Amino acid sequence: MRSARRAASSVVLSCLMLAGCSSASVGSSPGAGSGSAAAGPGGVSGRAIAVGAGPQKQYTVQQQPAAGSCHYRYEKGEPLEDSACTPGAISPAVTQTNLASTICRKGGYTKDIRPSTYVTGKEKELNAASYGYTGRMGDAEYDHLISLQLGGDPNDPRNLWVEPPDPGHRTGGGVNNKKDPVETKLHTAVCNGKVALAAAQRAIVTDWTTALSSLGLG
């Protein structure tokens, strides 16, 4: 029995001395117990989606990642967020059980919880520096990774990023991203009961370009 304990201790000690070994390797589960489990590229595999503060009566400008610390990824030319800077965050006000009174309610939901352009305008400029975005600001969207219509947190910096225009976008043409119709289709599927809220959130966090196909929605 003592020899078994000594062997186990040696394994843990060796593990902790190796580069890249973390407390998760010896039994802990970071992020467990909150949000929805996410899986996919960019370091989100196995983690729970963070839970933000939810809708606020008054929003304040949130601190953004350090300038130049975030880097876009691209999938078939489409820009994706840096999942270390923008892993996503959900609102605690939206759950699977209250969809009818929140994101699926008649008359809309998002307009009542959206931060003012005064707040998001300042955040957008700061986040553009975080991502090193130097294009025309009017062509980039300050985007909720998990959209408000999918229960994303309204003003958590983990859920917002400056999304560049799509490939081939005409400079000066304004915001017109292919991610937006994906969000709308996911919202419709959630409200029609075809897809669970958590599954839709998980799919868009993993990779918005494959979110629909991964859920069998085309």
Question: How do the strands of the widest beta sheet line up side by side?
Answer: 1-4
Using the CA coordinates, give the radius of gyration. Answer: 20 Å
Mean pLDDT across every amino acid position:
82
What coarse outline follows from CA principal-axis ratios?
globular
Strand portion: 5-15%
What is the share of helical residues?
25-40%
The overall strand count is 6
The major β-sheet equals:
2 strands, parallel
The DSSP helix count reads 5
What is the first-to-last residue Cα distance?
56 Å
Give unreliable regions as ranges. Answer: 1-34, 37-45
Summary tags:
218 residues; alpha+beta; 6 strands; globular; disordered N terminus
What can you see in these coordinates?
The protein has 218 residues and is α+β, with helices and mostly antiparallel strands. The chain has five helices and six strands. The chain has helices at residues 2-17, 117-131, 179-191, 197-206, 211-214; strands at residues 50-51, 73-75, 78-80, 89-90, 141-144, 160-163. The chain has a two-stranded parallel sheet with strand order 1-4. Strands 2-3 form a two-stranded antiparallel sheet. The longest helix is centred in the first third of the chain and has 16 residues, at 2-17. The chain is globular. The relative contact order is 0.16. The model is unreliable at 1-34 and 37-45 (pLDDT under 50).
